From TrEMBL:
Protein name: Glycosyltransferase family 9 protein
A GO cellular-component term linked to this record: cytosol
Gene Ontology MF annotations: ADP-heptose-lipopolysaccharide heptosyltransferase activity
InterPro entries: Glyco_trans_9, LPS_LOS_Heptosyltrfase
Organism whose genome encodes this protein: Limisphaera ngatamarikiensis
Length: 329
């Protein structure tokens, strides 16, 4: 019987996708239980079918009001904590240097608790690990955990995407988890027009609050995927992906699509999609970058300072690299 492993990844879609190769490798040696946001259940059949998924929207992952303790779902937290304790995990891990994760690993009774200590949280870990290089990609944290468990994960340079049939379609997704990560929609519209003029079929997708804008701009067939399953269907029908620094780009990359990302407040060296052909453009310099989406300005100057011409020049280079001539032919 395989030893039982508990994995905590309680944050965003992109964060969970980055954990995928760890989950895949771990499921070969362990009986893995993942605690994640509900979209983890939709990813499970596609990315890591051997992993059991428990859903939890942890209140401390809220963007605002995360410490309004009187609003926390205490009954649900107690229920899932007891459920996890009954499982008697041999090992529990978190790739975040987050004392809240480490305390929870202690409360659920994982016998061996592996993670990156911070603010005294080493007291809740049995195997505190040294942090990777400060400029290392988020994926490197999972590689450190893998080494601690005697698992093999390839380096970023060694990652190979799954094979995909070629098509003429670019999926342009203009949404993001936070508004400060969204490049202006009118500039996306100009970008879409230039791609179509080059002969590309472009499918525009967006977040629900953006739908009316796109429809009024003449994009009658704009897609508004409300589930990860619907997003996966759009990705499977495309050949390339262009979008903001957000979960859809990470999902497209792990499904095999070369991606082009417009970065704003976050750093590409930390969060670039995991695809060997991934490219990006970084927003304007800002003294507060990375601000982790808590922008100090009335508008995100890092993104709004990027013109259509600058982004188009970078997209042209991306298309030239993934398609000779930069066209779908």
């Amino acid at each position: 019987m395989k030893p039982r492993l508990l994995v905590l990844e309680l944050w965003g879609l992109g964060d969970l996708v980055i954990a995928s190769r760890f989950l895949q490798a771990a499921s070969e040696r362990f009986e893995v239980t993942l605690v994640s946001k509900p979209f983890g259940r939709e990813l499970q059949p596609r990315l890591w079918p051997g992993v059991r998924v428990l859903s939890l929207v942890a209140p401390w992952t809220a963007f605002r009001g995360k410490y309004r303790f009187w609003l926390w779902p205490w009954r649900e937290l107690i229920r899932i904590t007891r459920q996890l304790r009954r499982a008697r995990f041999e090992v529990g891990v978190s790739a975040r240097w987050d004392p809240r994760d480490h305390l929870w690993l202690r409360l659920v009774g994982a016998r061996e608790r592996v993670g990156f200590p911070r603010l005294g949280s080493h007291r809740w870990l049995t195997r505190p690990l040294a942090l990777p290089d400060p400029e290392a990609h988020r994926y490197e944290y999972w590689r450190c955990l893998a080494r601690a468990l005697n698992l093999e994960l390839p380096s970023r340079e060694q990652l190979s995407p799954p094979p995909r049939p070629r098509s003429r379609t670019i999926l342009v997704h203009t949404g993001a988890g936070q508004p400060v990560r969204v490049w202006p929609l009118d500039r996306y519209k100009e970008l879409v027009g230039r791609l179509r003029a080059r002969g590309w079929q472009v499918r525009v997708a967006c977040d629900p609050p953006q739908t009316a804008w796109w429809q009024q701009a003449g994009e009658r067939d704009v897609a508004t995927p409300q589930t990860v399953t619907a997003l996966l269907e759009l990705i499977e029908a495309a050949d390339l992906f262009i979008g903001n620094d957000s979960g859809p780009g990470h999902l497209a990359a792990i499904c095999g699509l070369p991606t082009f990302t417009i970065f704003g407040p976050q750093l590409p060296e930390w969060f670039a999609p995991l695809h060997p052909a991934a490219q990006w453009i970084e927003g304007r310099p800002c003294p507060f970058k990375p601000c982790f989406d808590y922008c100090r300005w009335p508008r995100p100057v890092c993104l709004e300072g990027l013109s259509v011409e600058e982004v188009w020049a970078a997209v042209e280079r991306f298309l030239q690299d993934v398609r000779p001539g930069g066209t779908p032919e």
